[in-house]
Design goal:
Elements lengths: L5 E2 L7 E5 L24 H13 L7 E5 L15 H19 L7 E3 L2 H7 L9 H5 L18 E3 L12 H10 L1
Parallel strand pairs: 2-3, 2-4, 4-5
Antiparallel strand pairs: 1-3
Length: 179
């Protein structure tokens, strides 16, 4: 069974948090089974950097709706999966619909937790920039809904430790202005 989305209370959502897919393997190469996206309630390591980042923004676990762009387990982890972008583009419409059931106004932004997600949902390759450019304030955020497959404002909030918001105070200031 694929992991479910995670949400404490749909009426208080401030942001959506979008992961890539649930695929993770243990040291003995067995697929890790998750109940919820990012293993919420099972393995705090999967969500630790993201939780640290949103906490710096004054957003708590109770304030977010968490889902994966590709909600199904894959044969390979995202970084090794050559088909991820293609599968993600196909899943984007489904996820956009799921998010619209929670927020029909389409104004609640989506935190993108990985560059692969960002590359998959941006509609025009000319509008894809490196993580460094985004975090160094060279790209306008939020990314307009009209420029992506989810039809919502997007905010890159990559989970790689290099992009922990404690290292990027100017980027934090830009995000805080959105909220």
């Amino acid at each position: 069974m694929n992991p479910k989305s995670f949400c404490f209370n749909k009426s208080r959502i401030k942001a959506f948090v979008l992961g890539a897919d649930p695929t993770n393997f243990s040291k003995d190469n067995k697929r890790v089974e998750l109940t919820y996206a990012f293993g919420i309630g099972q393995n705090p390591n999967y969500f630790r950097v993201i939780l640290d980042n949103i906490s710096l923004l004054g957003i708590h676990l109770e304030d977010v709706y968490i889902q994966n762009l590709v909600p199904e387990y894959q044969e390979q982890e995202t970084g090794k999966n050559k088909l991820f972008i293609e599968k993600a583009k196909k899943s984007a419409k489904l996820i956009a619909g799921e998010f619209s059931k929670v927020d029909s106004t389409r104004k609640i932004p989506v935190f993108l937790t990985a560059e692969d997600i960002y590359k998959a949902v941006i509609t025009n390759k000319e509008n894809i920039f490196s993580a460094e450019s985004i975090y160094n304030l060279n790209v306008n955020i939020p990314i307009k809904a009209s420029l992506n497959l989810l039809g919502r404002p997007l905010i890159p909030l990559f989970r790689h430790e290099k992009y922990g918001l404690s290292n990027w105070p100017d980027y934090v200031n830009r995000i805080e202005k959105i909220f």
